[in-house]
Amino acid sequence: MQNKSTFLFNIEYPIIQGGMIWTSGWRLASAVSNAGGLGLIGAGSMYPDVLREHILKCQNATSKPFGVNVPMLYPDLDEIMNIIIEMGVKIVFTSAGNPKTWTSYLKEKEITVVHVVSSVKFALKAQEAGVDAIVAEGFEAGGHNGRDETTTLVLIPAIKEKITIPILAAGGIASGQSMLAAMVLGADGVQVGSRFVASNEASSHQLFKQEVINSKEGDTQLTLKELAPVRLLKNKFYDDVQTAYANGASVEQLKELLGRARAKKGMFEGNLEEGELEIGQVSALLHEIKPAAQIVSDFMAEFNEAKKLVENF
C-alpha cells in the first residue's frame, strides 16, 4: 500500500506506532518496523544514555526505518537531539513545544520531522515551521492531550482543509476500520498508541497492560488541565486528584500531588493504585494482549475488509 505517508517514511503500511513514555522501547519499535509499519522509540521517559542504548539495540534488531519521539518539555533536550543525530536516526517526531525550535536544525541534518498537534491553529504553525508532516491527535487519545477537546472525527477534516503536508490521525484508532475512517476523512496514515500498549513487546508493566484490556467504557478521563491535560484510567490516584479539585486545590497543590515519577510508578512499575495510568478511550475496545506484528497484520486485514464493504455500498 503506497501513499504520502508510506513514501515519506519508506514503509510498507501507513501505521505509525506512538512513541509513548514507559512503553515504547526498542523491542516494540523494532517489532512494528519489522512488520511493515513505523516504530518509534519514546525518548520522553529516557535519560540520554538510556536513549542511546535503545537506539543501538533497535538498529541491531531491524534494518527497516524507525524514529524517535521527543516531547520538547523534557530536560536534557540538547543532549537528546545530539544523540539522535550522532546515532544516525532519520525520523523524529516532536511534541509538547514549539516546532520552530528544532525543525530547521534537524532538517539540515536530513532528518524527517513530524510534529504532534491538537488543533488547526497549531497545525498551521507546524506547517509554517517546515515540518514534513503532522500528527493530528484527537481528544480520545491517551496521555497528554489538547485543551480544546476536539475529537479525531472533527479534527482531521478541519486540518485537512488548511494544510498541504501529510496528516497522520491519532486518537481512538485501534483497528483497520478506524484507520479507514480516518483516511476517508483526509488522513494519510494513522498513529496508534493504546493498541500497542497492549502488546507483548511494550516495555510497560504487565499489570498495566492487563488493566488496559480490562477497562470499560467511561474508565478514562481527561484531567489536570491546569498542568498538562492528561487522559488517565480511573484509580486511587485519579480519585485523589478529583478530591483535590473538590477541595479547591491550587496549581501548586496539584503539582505536589502529582509529584515526580508518577507515570513511571503506574505504567512501568505496575502500581495500579498510586500510579498515573495514561491510556486512550479506545482501551475499552481492547480485549487481548497481542504481538506487535499481529497487531499490524490485523490492522491491514481489517482495513482491506472494511474497504471492500464500503465499495459495495
Give a topology summary.
Elements (H helix, E strand, L loop, with lengths): L3 H6 L5 E3 L8 H9 L4 E4 L5 H14 L4 E6 L5 H10 L4 E5 L7 H6 L3 E6 L2 H10 L3 E5 L5 E2 L7 H9 L6 E4 L5 H9 L4 E4 L1 H4 L8 H9 L5 E4 L6 E4 L2 H11 L4 H8 L3 H7 L23 H20 L2
Parallel strand pairs: 1-9, 2-3, 3-4, 4-5, 5-6, 6-8, 8-9
Antiparallel strand pairs: 7-11, 10-11
Helix pairs in contact: 2-3, 3-4, 8-14, 11-12
Strand content: 15-25%
SSE order: HEHEHEHEHEHEEHEHEHHEEHHHH
CATH class of the largest domain: Alpha Beta
In CATH terms, the superfamily of the largest domain is Aldolase class I
Instruction: Please outline the major beta sheet.
Output: 8 strands, parallel
Number of strands: 11
Low-confidence stretches: none
Please name the CATH architecture of the largest domain.
Answer: Alpha-Beta Barrel
Strand order of the largest sheet: 1-9-8-6-5-4-3-2
Query: Helix proportion of residues, in percent?
Result: 40-55%
Determine the CATH topology of the largest domain.
Answer: TIM Barrel
The geometry reads as globular
Q: What is the C-alpha radius of gyration, as a whole number of Å?
A: 18 Å
Instruction: Please indicate the count of domains.
Output: 2
Q: What structural category do the secondary elements indicate?
A: alpha/beta
